[in-house]
Amino acid sequence: MxxxxxxxxxxxIYEVKDKDEQLAEQLTRAIxxxxxEDVENLYERMNNIQADLETLLxxxxxxIADYVEILKRYVPHQRDVLNQITKAQSKIVxxxxxxxxxxxxxxxxxxxxxxxxxxxxxxxxKNDPDLMRIFDHLAGIRIRILVDVQGYNDRVPEYxxxxxxxxxxxxxxxxxxxxxxxxxxKGLRSE
Length: 191
Prior knowledge:
The chain has 7 helices and no strands. It has helices at residues 5-19, 21-74, 79-94, 98-104, 112-121, 123-126, 129-164. The radius of gyration is 24 Å and the shape is rod-shaped.
């Protein structure tokens, strides 16, 4: 007989309970203590990823502001381009939750492809070492964001499945986690 999942654990406990009530109680406590510890560890890893994402998203926002300042020096006459980028950036700043920030960062105006297209139109921009450094940093941050979002989303189903096994998980302040929306993030599989 296998003892997998909640039903399997319950079967094991009832089987032991028939033989020894005290042992069954100790076994139940040990199983749930282990499960709660697993959930807490997953929750902590997910929170660490969220904190990393917050930092990366803030850094990306700062770099886009630096990008705009350099653009203003070279192409001040391109007000519509500057305004579009600034407007997209203000959405990032206004976003309150990490999910909103991730979604705001997918705005097509501020994707690396579109930012690069602006650079290609003006040869002087390509020669600005500060702008190229910013662009390289933006590309690196994008990859790290992709990795962190995917890492978080990969842990969510496991976390949610484990809290379902805990009776009254809200007593421990465990709530189901929600996947980050990945639609529109180039290079990341959509959920």
